[in-house]
Amino acid sequence: QVQLVESGGxxxxxxxxxxxxxxxxxxxxxxxxxxxxxxxxxxGPELVATIASVGDAVRYADSAKGRFVISKDNSKNTxxxxxxxxxxxxxxxxxxxxxxxxDRDNWYSAPFWGQGTQxxxxx
Length: 123
Hints:
By secondary structure, the protein is mainly β. It contains no helices and eleven strands.
């Protein structure tokens, strides 16, 4: 079955960096576009970044542009999110997901989720 295991979260000071990882299994990793979501307490999920199944096409939420970098290693079935210049408002549980852009503005999320990894940024 599809499994997604996120890791790399933690407590960091404002301005610091973290690198999140997501290990995928149970599906053909290279066939799928992948994404990072985050969810803060009291908020709905926010799509943070996506990366295409082939090539390096990436998209970012405005909140992540210029600070976060999404990448993946198909040989390791692993998705990454490098987060720099972290702010307290980045505090959330971060989750990875497989899916695809169905059109320019709509991302389809496959119904598979991991436990997520907590990122806490102190001011």
